Amino acid sequence: MTLGKTDPYWKNPRVPAIFNNLIAWKCGHNGAITERTGHVIFNNFKIADSGIAGIEFSVIEDIVDGYAKVTGGIVIGNTGFNDINGTTSNRTTWGFIGPRTEGMTVTGTSFYNFDF
Question: What dihedral angle (degrees, nearest 10) is formed by the CA atoms of 69, 115, 27, 99?
């Protein structure tokens, strides 16, 4: 059995889904999240004061290493602008939650103010 007979699209090039320049602040859950991810690139995201995580990738599916990635950007845990009546209502607990599978790349991303 040849690969062409089992998957008629095996010669097609991968087409990335590229998300550029997202700005997310005070998100109740995550600034950016993907569930079942293929060739997806989060590029130059700026995320601050999220409820749980700045960026989360849940599962990488059917893709080789390096195709699912986060490049550049910044994730800020606590900007200091989130205090309401002396409590911290929104602050990022995790900068990045990685996938439960392999094949993820994070490059050039900065993480600041995770002091808790």
Answer: 30
CB atoms within 10 A of CB 16: 14
**Enclosing H/E stretch for 6:** helix 3-6
Burial (CB < 10 A; 0-12, 13-18, 19+), residue 10, is: exposed
**pLDDT tens-digit readout, 32-79:** 999 998 889 999 999 998 888 999 999 988 777 778 999 999 999 888
In the sheet where 23-25 sits, what is the strand order?
Answer: 23-25, 46-48, 74-76, 110-112
What residue ranges do the domains of the chain occupy? Answer: 16-112
Question: By the 8 A CB rule, do 82 and 88 touch?
Answer: yes
Cα dihedral 35/40/43/47 (nearest 10): 0
Is the model's pTM score more than 0.85?
Answer: no
